[in-house]
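User: Sequence recovery, please. Input:
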């Protein structure tokens, strides 16, 4: 900090207090200080450029992960104004960068819709950065101002001439605030892809300057969508078999609210609706989603009735039946969104329901009328879904009746814990009866319950719903947890308050099969109990890969580096004898004590919490992992595999 800048006015002090508040409670402004919050910094900055693009002045956004894990976001918009703000006696650029919520306030005409997670503005990013540089090109000049933890290092200065316009922000997150400051290329790529689909016509590039790929170049991707949500729906469904070839698409304004909707049907049994408000994925739904459902159900019901197809079938159809195999994206732009719900991702504005419902009804009615063959395919699928739902209900009623008869209703294979407060209880789902037995011996029975699962559970991505309810292992999972699964509208809520454990831990072998089983279980949770993931209840245990032993000294390693360090350490520590290294492939290779010590003891274990970083991308990945198409799966596994080297 330069000394000359010390004559702070009352205004300045207020500014500093604002940014100080952000540094004191960063989670209040950016969600958290983990990996998620770290990435939100980038989204916050990119959002400003997106706003400039939505206002019609920008069509290119470049994002760079720099070598030192700082990030640069550059756009070709008008450039943040640099002129003196008469009242504040400061450059507008400085105000944008240092005053909380100063966002787009100068320009009433700027249609600020793109929200950022909390719409907190770039000043928050500045406050949480050890260094930030803003470079603006406009009015024939190039201007710059730099900051440290939000404080300007000097007044805005001219650093050259320019015949272009645009804004470039480079920031380096403060390591004293964030748990990790390493950016993940794939995480950023998924968000940039999503933004490109949600805001058609903008070219977004992402470049990773930290590494080189096989071709000796920096990994880089360009995202651009001409067709917007219509292409997004196609992307989401690219690993599924199509029921109809078209994407049904609407874009326009209804009652002053910009609405964009795309939908298509595939032959699967899962429903996949991604709903966005101001580019934010609202996975708790809300009024826009209700509007979508209403429009869909009413229009399809009307068509099915009027076309006479339904009358022949004599079957009762409800809302869920219209959504089996449906993939849809809904995006609305709302001036003053009210976000509700546990994770503040549920839209509350009532005025949004009708416009979305109208838009969906209109586009769908037109489509059905003009495409009788596709319409028939859709209605037939709906009827099939209704039949399956009736069968599933019967199957579930059977299961519930049986449980009543067996008394406690808990699965026989469950070794429960004695503690009754769910907040203190954990359940381990363990791969295989043998490891299950070891875990039962090794556990602390006071608060740890063990539920062995036999081998590979059903792939729910491909199974019909009644098969899922009837499946023995899946029944065991949900009855042990004490919650309900259901796909019917009224039972959609899990009755999560009945959940018997607040830590649900998946414990599988540290090999390829174990990973597969892990994925199958996660697929089930993702499709049928997403709330458990959203509430942070799902974890993955991490058993060690190696035991390193010398005489009576024993230690464990979770990767090769650790293993080699242990070997060196043990070798250095005295006698001649060859250090013994054991590779654990299965949980069963550990005895109860080892399993407790390395994997189950809260004192020393590592649990990986399962979170949903990007809902749309997550759906796409699950459908790909569990689908029929092999090459994309192989590619994904090769890229992400943890065990490939070790098992080879
Ligand atoms: C307010 C007014 C004007 C531009 C911007 C904001 C602006 C902000 C950002 C943030 C990142 N990139 C941006 N590009 C533009 C321009 C007002 C005018 O020129 O008349």
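Assistant: Recovered sequence (648 residues):
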């Amino acid at each position: 900090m330069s000394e000359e800048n010390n004559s702070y006015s009352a205004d300045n002090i207020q500014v500093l207090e604002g940014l100080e508040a952000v540094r004191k409670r960063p989670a209040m402004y950016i969600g958290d200080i983990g990996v998620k919050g770290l990435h939100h910094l980038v989204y916050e900055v990119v959002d400003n450029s997106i706003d400039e693009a939505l206002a019609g002045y920008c069509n290119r956004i470049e994002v760079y992960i720099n070598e030192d894990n700082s990030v640069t976001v550059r756009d070709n918009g008008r450039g943040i104004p640099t002129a003196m703000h008469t009242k504040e006696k400061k450059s507008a650029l400085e105000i944008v960068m240092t005053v909380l919520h100063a966002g787009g306030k100068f320009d009433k005409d700027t249609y600020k819709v793109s929200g950022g997670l909390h719409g907190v503005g770039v000043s928050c990013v500045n406050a949480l950065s050890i260094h930030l540089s803003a470079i603006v090109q406009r009015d024939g000049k190039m201007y710059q101002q730099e900051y440290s933890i939000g404080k300007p290092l000097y007044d805005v200065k001219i650093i050259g001439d320019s015949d272009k316009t645009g804004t470039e922000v480079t920031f380096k997150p403060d390591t004293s605030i964030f748990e990790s400051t390493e950016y993940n290329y794939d995480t950023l790529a998924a968000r940039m892809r999503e933004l490109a689909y949600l805001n058609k016509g903008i070219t977004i590039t992402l470049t990773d300057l930290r590494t080189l790929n096989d071709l000796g170049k920096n990994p880089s991707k360009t995202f651009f969508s001409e067709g917007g949500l219509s292409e997004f729906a196609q992307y989401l469904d690219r690993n599924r078999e199509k029921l109809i070839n078209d994407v049904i698409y609407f874009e326009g304004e209804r009652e002053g609210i910009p609405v964009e909707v795309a939908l298509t049907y595939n032959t699967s049994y899962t429903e996949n609706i991604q709903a966005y408000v101001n580019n934010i994925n609202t996975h708790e739904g809300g009024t826009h989603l209700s509007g979508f459902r209403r429009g869909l159900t009413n229009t399809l019901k009307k068509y099915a009735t009027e076309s006479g197809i339904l009358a022949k079938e004599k079957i009762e159809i409800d809302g869920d039946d219209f959504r089996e195999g449906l993939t849809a994206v809904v995006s609305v732009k709302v001036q003053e969104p009210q976000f509700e719900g546990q994770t503040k991702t549920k839209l509350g504005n009532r005025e949004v329901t009708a416009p979305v419902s109208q838009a969906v009804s209109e586009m769908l009615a037109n489509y059905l009328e003009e495409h009788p063959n596709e319409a028939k395919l859709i209605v037939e699928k709906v009827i099939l879904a209704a039949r399956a739902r009736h069968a599933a209900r019967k199957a579930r009623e059977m299961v519930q009746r049986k449980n009543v008869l067996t008394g406690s209703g808990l699965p026989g294979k469950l070794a429960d814990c004695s503690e009754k407060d769910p907040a203190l209880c954990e359940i381990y789902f363990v791969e295989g009866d043998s490891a299950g037995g070891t875990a039962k011996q090794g556990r602390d029975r006071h608060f740890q319950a063990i539920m062995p699962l036999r081998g590979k559970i059903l792939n729910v991505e491909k199974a019909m719903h009644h098969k899922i309810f009837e499946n023995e292992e899946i029944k065991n999972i949900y009855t042990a947890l004490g919650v309900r699964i259901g796909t019917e509208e009224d039972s959609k809520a899990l009755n999560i308050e009945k959940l018997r454990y607040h830590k649900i831990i998946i414990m599988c072998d540290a090999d390829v099969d174990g990973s597969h089983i892990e994925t199958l279980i996660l697929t089930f949770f993702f499709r049928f109990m997403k709330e458990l993931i959203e509430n942070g209840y799902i974890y993955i245990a991490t058993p060690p890969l190696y035991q390193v032993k010398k005489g009576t000294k024993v230690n464990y390693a979770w990767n090769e580096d650790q293993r080699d360090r242990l070997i060196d350490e043990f070798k250095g520590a005295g006698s001649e004898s060859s250090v013994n290294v054991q590779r654990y492939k299965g949980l069963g290779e550990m005895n109860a004590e080892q399993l407790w010590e390395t994997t189950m003891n809260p004192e020393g274990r590592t649990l990986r919490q399962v979170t949903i970083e990007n809902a749309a991308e997550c759906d796409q990945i699950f459908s790909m992992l569990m689908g029929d198409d092999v090459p994309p799966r192989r590619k994904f596994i090769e890229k992400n595999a943890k065990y490939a080297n070790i098992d080879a």
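The CA atoms of residues 334 and 461 lie 34 Å apart.
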